[in-house]
Amino acid sequence: MILNRSNCRRSIDTKRHHLRKKFKVFFSARKVLLSIFWDSEGVIHTEFLEQGNTVNSTICEHTGETESELRRVRSEKVSIIHHDNARPHTSLETRTAIDRLGLRTLPHPPYSPDLASSDFFLFPKLKDYLKGNRYETDEDVKNAVLSWCRDKTADFFADGIQQVVRRWRLCIERDGDYVET
């Protein structure tokens, strides 16, 4: 819930003779889930999940099928997928879909958001951009996200990939310890 203090009303409690604030309570917008493919050149594909859906292996398999379309965009490159070890990403259905598409998965250590580029780089920057803004509808949120993605340069995304390389090296140097910024 979002509590909007600018809309509070004051009322007098005659029994206690002091001011009491009553707040209007607003329910926050529903969660909007984003699946995003990006590389050092920019955003390749975005997909918003239907309201009420969660990330599961069926969604990941569908997203994996989208990857075959994405390979045409970056056809000169070997397609490697990097994601964390969440159950939907490691399920048999997802691994089968990735294998069927001839893609390679870059291994990711468990419980390591410090080494996942979307977790430490992309999503925090997107959240900072969205923070403090009010969106009336899910479509408004989606449009803001897509606008943010379009406004980012290739240098921005290349920096995100370079940070992955730097963090992985630090992790190796620290014998697997967590990597802070």
Automatic annotation (TrEMBL):
<dbReference type="GO" id="GO:0003676">
    <property type="term" value="F:nucleic acid binding"/>
</dbReference>
<dbReference type="InterPro" id="IPR052709">
    <property type="entry name" value="Transposase-MT_Hybrid"/>
</dbReference>
<dbReference type="InterPro" id="IPR036397">
    <property type="entry name" value="RNaseH_sf"/>
</dbReference>
<dbReference type="InterPro" id="IPR001888">
    <property type="entry name" value="Transposase_1"/>
</dbReference>
<dbReference type="Pfam" id="PF01359">
    <property type="entry name" value="Transposase_1"/>
</dbReference>
<protein>
    <submittedName>
        <fullName>Mariner Mos1 transposase</fullName>
    </submittedName>
</protein>
